[in-house]
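S.,

Sequence below, as promised.
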Amino acid sequence: MQKTTLVTAVVAAVVFAVAGYIVGAKFGKVTTINLAQKAKDCRGHDCDVMIKFTCVDDLHPTTATCVPYAENDLILVSHGKKIEFNLDSTDDFKFDGTEGIKFTSANAGSFFPCQSQGPKKFKCENNLPNATPSEMYKYSIYVQGMIKVDPFVVNY
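The prediction came back faster than expected:
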């Protein structure tokens, strides 16, 4: 009886090991994307922010294999100045209609209105009152067919 149980356990372990190897090899590798975090100081003037892409396969970039990111993931801006977001891509990547850039922090959307300037450009204004204390505002980057990304703007 103990011999049968031992043989059954060994056979089950071998079957699960082989199945795990086949399933693991079939689904491929997991890719981790690490991006350098950089800030851009635009206090006192309008600001240009480049939206770049990191892709699993740089030779064949697609919306399924690329992720957008702000070249500077933290932007320092002043009252009354504009922020222009541009897609840095020769591929067919485009902002997602009227939601290409959208401020998502509480009440930030009314103070940072954004308008499309074409498929690869969005312009936002900092309409916060002058007396507003410094604060971080999260915004989202929407590129057609890609996941949403959420960096920050700091009002100074």
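The domain at 39-155 is CATH 2.60.40 (Immunoglobulin-like).

Coffee later?
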